[in-house]
Amino acid sequence: MLDAFSRAVVSADASTAPIGDLSALKAFVASGNRRLDAVNAIASNASCMVSDAIAGMICENQGLIQAGGNCYPNRRMAACLRDGEIVLRYVSYALLAGDASVLDDRCLNGLKETYAALGVPATSTVRAVQIMKAQAAAHIQDDPSEARAGARLRKMGSPVVNDRCASLVAEASSYFDRVISALG
């Protein structure tokens, strides 16, 4: 797993040149606390995010929980929840490191082929990842929907929606997009 610093050093070493773009590393350091807050927002809500994403996927395709469906019986549902947690964990690792290599190497390498061999429907899996992507953006911005949450609405602190937060939302979204494209 490479973080932004390791990636810069490896690139410079491969070209036998000094590190050229220090501004990118400075920006990475400057976003450190916001990056940690974003990862914490995802990690502290991971269980709910995954279960809601899987429930949303099933609501859109009820056949998944019928006999012969990919979330039937309970052990398959448990495997689906487990896989959702794994994807979310590796997206969090990538966001923390500021680099997608850990996501690519440890999670996405061979995922499509494995799911195809197991008969896991890619469209349903992609839909669950899309739901988690939307949830992650809301949690990073600390902007849950009041219309849907009602009395259960819980915010982590004051809203942090600004340009700096938007860049972390975009970065996290890009990691979810990598998962979606790996499955498609």
TrEMBL record:
Record organism: Leptothoe spongobia TAU-MAC 1115
A Pfam family hit: Phycobilisome
Signal peptide positions on this chain: none
Identification of the protein by name: C-phycoerythrin subunit beta
Post-translational modification N4-methylasparagine, affected residues: N70
Subcellular location: Cellular thylakoid membrane
Record-linked Gene3D superfamilies: Phycocyanins
GO terms of biological process kind: photosynthesis
Superkingdom per UniProt: Bacteria
Record: residues binding (2R,3E)-phycocyanobilin: N33, D37, N70, R75, C80, L81, R82, D83, G84, E85, I86
Any one of the GO CC terms: phycobilisome
Membrane topology: Peripheral membrane protein
Cited SUPFAM superfamilies: Globin-like (SSF46458)
